Automatic annotation (TrEMBL):
Cofactor: how bound: Binds 1 Ca(2+) ion per subunit.
Keywords noted in UniProt: Acyltransferase, Calcium, Metal-binding, Transferase
UniProt protein name: protein-glutamine gamma-glutamyltransferase
Similarity field: Belongs to the transglutaminase superfamily. Transglutaminase family.
Length: 700
């Protein structure tokens, strides 16, 4: 009587991956999501009899063992093992169709499948199965009910990251590319590298925290090495990436950190990693984001007598900062904190000895529950600090500091992410904060202050309240918001488009609303600064004394000639913003007000020409056309293009493009994936760092 032997195993890849929403992964192995059934076809040397012993063995890790839970032995007649189920769907002669359902809280990772019959063990070819989190499964903690949201936050492999400044937000297309070759393998390598235990791999809170640490190179030779130095020799400038694919592929190949990244690169890569592992994830940009090193919820800004910002503060306000939200139930927290959780892989501060941040419940930030794990104090400060302006004056040869103003509603504006199913920005500030000055905001703020703030400091809203100090005495806290005696108000804007090579034409508008004759001293300055708030160059200042008969307003022009800034613009590797700072003081009442606005340069567009639709595996031509409408030569131009499922990342060297000249590049494309595909293009040169565009094509 011949013993039962397996002669073949079919993992039914195409039918299983369709049902598991994993058919897009470019990998020869089977990729499935936990908690959902998948089928396996077993071919035997004879018919299966009631007395036969058949089991599927799933092993995870180096040395799988039953008693450690890393080896699961599933027998069709035994209902349940560690939450996994297996059943016989049908027997047909020597063929046997099995259905396997993993536990909805199984550890994610790579499982080796062996089939055991009696004493025989069969090892199928490509028998490594990748198990991911499952937002389609109600019993998985990453479950997301809304289909359109899953389509966006789990399945979409392209998107935008919002950058610029609160005054001029723009979208930077980013290819997440979670399905591309080696990307899933890179994520599995990171999971192994994280040294998370099997139990910890069950929980997306642990996994997302570990990934926030591993996407930066600090501490652990992670994926991306951050640099804000302005010198990117020996690597790729952070501005030059257009997606995560090249970065993760290079990292997987070399196992060494890829140079260089800044916050949007870290967020783009972390978004890819989380979506790839099956956790709903989105990139979140906050404008005027505080980096408060003393955890006292104030950021100090120092100005000289010309109104120019000085680089002397440890705290900083970044024009924008990008992190990620991941979606999950927080089983480790009290009720009420499920949903979006902030995680941040930009190395800013150490948390528990490593550069990692989150997951921090977004609802906790809104309610002021800043004691919740992980890092909620840090995230709260990023969106809620006050900006305090100080004037630095030399008095008898020594620097003396005079407090100018406190801005309470400035930090954490226009919190943005890509809208679900649409190519537009969605403002999610309300998920992070109550409306400024509302009753809920007051309560949330007082709650947060009870955990953070040293006593006696100003609160954030323009209202008076009494806050208990440690000594038990109460003191009223009143804020000098622009509720000034004269109703003084400043606005800053540009009066002409800000094209590199042209004069920068801006205006400072001073308004007073109270009747009377007012004498106002106005100081204005214009500087170039990095998005991290670091000043790169002083371009010019203006000092005026104006007389206003209230209520009225006056516009003071501020004009900077091109030769004041073009040299700096061409010599820096990063994109810089134009910072205008104004200080106004009313002589009669000593009212003081400070205002700053950052603006970005405006660039001519890249046009993409290609058909609206194309057929799978049929070539088509895509042309990129750029006309230099600026008054300056663009030196060392490079065009970077990538189309996921159409063509791999390609770059064209364009040399110098003279004013008025048109350049055209063409690429032959062969679509390998169906549906809507996107082509992303970016032009970089010495003078301009970030002209990008994208265009969609439908592949049938």
């Amino acid at each position: 009587d011949s013993s039962l032997k397996v002669i073949g195993v079919d993992l039914l890849k195409s039918q299983n991956t369709k049902q598991h929403h994993t058919d897009a992964y470019n990998i020869k192995n089977l990729v499935v999501r936990r908690g959902h059934p998948f089928q396996v076809q077993i071919s035997l040397n004879r018919e299966l009899r009631p007395a036969d012993k058949l089991s599927l063995r799933f092993g995870i890790g180096e040395n799988p063992m039953k008693n450690r839970g890393s080896l699961l032995s599933l027998k069709p007649e035994r209902e349940d093992f560690n939450g996994w189920k297996i059943s016989i769907v049908k027997k047909d002669g020597k063929e046997c169709l099995l259905s396997v359902t993993s536990s909805p809280n199984a550890p994610v990772g790579k499982y080796n499948l062996h089939v055991k019959t009696g004493t025989n063990i069969y090892k199928p070819e490509n028998g490594v199965i990748y198990l991911l989190f499952n937002p389609w499964c109600e019993d998985d903690v990453v479950y997301m009910a809304n289909e359109a949201q899953k389509e966006e936050y789990v399945l979409n492999d392209t998107g935008y990251i919002y950058v610029g400044s609160a005054y001029s937000i723009y979208d930077r297309p980013w290819n997440f590319g979670q399905y591309e070759e080696y990307v899933l393998d890179a994520c599995m390598y990171l999971l192994d590298k994280s040294k998370l235990s099997l139990t910890e791999r069950r929980n997306p809170a642990n996994v997302s925290r570990a990934m926030s640490a591993l996407v930066n190179a600090n501490d652990d030779n992670g994926v991306v090495l951050g640099s804000w130095s302005g010198n990117y020799i020996g690597g790729t400038s952070p501005m030059d990436w257009i997606g995560s694919v090249t970065i993760l592929q290079k990292y997987y190949k070399t196992k060494k950190p890829v140079k260089y990244g800044q916050c949007w690169v870290f967020a783009g890569v972390l978004n890819t990693v989380m979506r790839c592992l099956g956790v709903p994830s989105r990139c979140v940009s906050t404008f005027d984001s505080a980096h408060d090193t003393e955890e006292n919820l104030t950021v100090d800004i120092y100005l000289n007598e010309k109104g120019e910002k000085l680089n002397i503060s440890f705290d900083s306000v970044w024009n924008f900062h990008v992190w990620n939200d991941v979606w999950m139930k927080r089983t480790d927290l009290p009720n009420g904190f499920d949903g979006w959780q902030a995680i941040d892989s930009t190395p800013q501060e150490q948390s528990q000895g490593r550069f990692q941040c989150g997951p921090c419940p977004v609802k906790g930030v809104r309610e002021g529950d800043v004691y919740l794990p992980y890092d909620s104090k840090f995230v709260y400060a990023e969106v809620n600090a006050d900006r305090v302006y100080w004037l630095v004056r030399k008095v008898n040869g020594k620097d003396k500091y005079f407090k100018l103003a406190t801005e309470t509603q400035d930090i954490g504006k226009n919190i943005s992410t890509k809208a679900v199913g649409q190519n537009r920005r969605e403002d999610i500030t309300r998920e992070y904060k109550y409306p400024e000055g509302s009753r809920e905001e007051r309560m949330s703020m007082q709650r947060a202050y009870s955990f953070i703030r040293p006593s006696g400091l100003m609160p954030r809203s323009g209202y008076a309240s009494t806050v208990q100090t440690l000594s038990g005495s109460t003191q009223p806290l009143v804020l000098n918001e622009p509720a000034t005696k004269t109703g003084l108000h400043i606005e800053i804007n540009n009066t002409e488009p800000l094209h590199p090579g042209n004069p920068l034409e801006m205006a400072i508008t001073v308004k007073v609303s109270a009747p009377g004759n007012w004498t106002i001293d106005l100081t204005g300055s214009c500087q170039l600064q990095y998005y991290t708030g670091k000043v790169q160059a002083n371009l010019g200042t203006t000092k005026e004394t104006i007389n206003l008969e209230g209520p009225s307003e006056m516009q003071i022009p501020l004009k900077i000639a091109p030769d004041m800034y073009m040299k700096t613009l061409s010599s820096v590797e990063d994109e810089v913003l134009i910072l205008v700072t104004a200080i106004a003081e009313v002589r009669e009442t000593k009212d003081k007000l400070t205002k700053e606005t950052s603006m970005r340069f405006q660039y001519p567009p890249i046009n993409v020409q290609m058909p609206e639709t194309a057929k799978l595996y049929n070539d088509f031509t895509c042309a990129f056309i750029f006309k230099n409408k600026l008054n300056v030569i663009l030196e060392n131009c490079k065009l970077l293009v990538e189309g996921l499922g159409i063509f791999k990342m390609t770059s064209f060297d364009m040399g110098d493009i003279m004013p008025g000249r048109i350049m055209k590049s063409e690429i032959i494309c062969t679509p390998t994936r169906l549906g809507e595909r996107k082509i992303v293009a970016k032009l970089i040169s010495n003078q301009i760092k970030g002209i990008s565009t994208e265009k969609a094509i439908t592949i049938t």
